[in-house]
Design a protein that fits this description.
Helix 1 links the parallel strand 1 (2-7) and strand 2. The protein is globular. The protein is built from four helices and six strands; from the N terminus they run E-H-E-E-H-E-H-E-H-E. By secondary structure, it is α/β, with parallel strands linked by helices. It has helices spanning 27-35, 105-111, 124-137, 158-168, and strands at residues 2-7, 40-46, 82-86, 116-122, 141-150, 172-174. It has a six-stranded parallel sheet. Helix 3 (124-137) runs parallel beside helix 4. The model has no long low-confidence stretch (mean pLDDT 97). The chain binds zinc ion. Zinc ion is lined by residues 46, 48, 54, 61-62, 87. The site of zinc ion has 6 residues, from loops.
Amino acid sequence: MRGLLIVDVQNDFCPRGSLAVSEGDKVVPVINRLMKLFPVVVASKDWHPRKTVHFQKWPPHCVHNSRGAEFHPDIHDVGIQQVFLKGTGDRDDGYSAYEATNLNLEQYLKDHKVNELFVVGLATDYCVKASALDSVKRGFKTFVVTDAVAAVNLNPQDGENALRGMKDEGVVLIESKDVK
Ligand SMILES: [Zn+2]
């Protein structure tokens, strides 16, 4: 069974958000199209407390229940079957969707017979990367859809390097047009 994991497509990571990924919203129409091809569709949300060590590294973003933590308004969120909340503690970063605290993502995927996981969303060089690598480690055949992700790019090559690093660890890079 194939599953789609939509990582952190939240207002704060999109243009005008507090930790905006340039052109982060470009992934939205691609993801909306992909969602229709998958029987299992889940999403993660960065869901931070107001005070956390994470905000010593990053500008405050995705504070739980804030507007910035909501999904981008154009995401067809009715198609999302389960949301996984991560970074919910005050001591952790919660980059990987497998660190969600409201539910266990690995268990959820196994319960739904998912063995191939396609990862999309924001941002390539942090949460997408951490989630894809954790997915490989847990034995899922893991894909990253390269035109459905976008990078923070603190350094201009970070996104490219992240994709190469994922590929080296066994992640399959694919374009959305090749997802049938
Ligand atoms: Zn965060």
